[in-house]
Amino acid sequence: MSDIEITVAPLIPPTAIVERGAAVGPGTRIWHFAHVMPGAKIGADCVVGHACYIGNVTIGDRCRIQNHVSVFDAVTLEDEVLLGPSCVFTNVKHPRAHVSRKDEYAPTLVCKGATIGANATVVCGVTSGAYAFVGAGAAVASDVQPHALVVGVPARWIGWAC
Fold first, then answer.
1. Whole-prediction pTM value?
2. Which residue of 39, 54, 77, 92 has the smallest Cβ count within 10 Å?
3. Cα 80 to chain centroid, rounded
4. How buried is residue 162: exposed, middle or buried, by Cβ count under 10 Å (0-12/13-18/19+)?
């Protein structure tokens, strides 16, 4: 092996929108019709799938965000997080169309190596611990312990994930 480090520029097709003020790490691929907002920080070697929305968030290295995922403001994904297709995060506990609550965004943390299954909903203000596994379609309204496997509505613990 050589001591030479090769840095690959991000892959961003012309149908994706990456706003000024967003930071995208080397080797990251952002697919068609994704929209990355100003202030977003996306690490190295990530994949942002088709038609994703990435708000003013922090995303670690080697994350996989599948198609049609919305990652709203105040969400942090640590390294190696997998977000299944069409999962979603909220950022306000009591939303109303006629009341601006941008000053009430509750931070949400998904720790290293965690998986959020397809069509799961993660309510703002919770932490999903390292290597936790949230099953498809679950509604997560409270913290998930590291390595815990949770499923259902509301999400409940049923076992452990390696």
1. 0.93
2. 39
3. 10
4. exposed
- DSSP string across 64-93: EE-TT-EE-TTEEE-TT-EE-TT-EE---S
User: 20-74: per-residue pLDDT in tens?
Assistant: 999 999 999 999 999 999 999 999 999 999 999 999 999 999 999 999 999 999 9
Is residue 139 a contact partner of residue 117, using CB atoms and an 8 Å limit?
no
Spatial CA neighbour of 133 closest among 114, 152, 119: 114
* Closest C-alpha among 53, 76, 57 to residue 126: 76
Predicted confidence (pLDDT) per residue in 77-129, tens digit: 999 999 999 999 999 988 899 999 888 899 999 999 999 999 999 999 999 99
Rg (CA), the chain: 16
Residue 123 CB contacts under 8 Å (≥ 6 apart), including other chains: 90, 93, 139, 140, 141
Cα separation of 66 and 77, whole Å?
Answer: 14
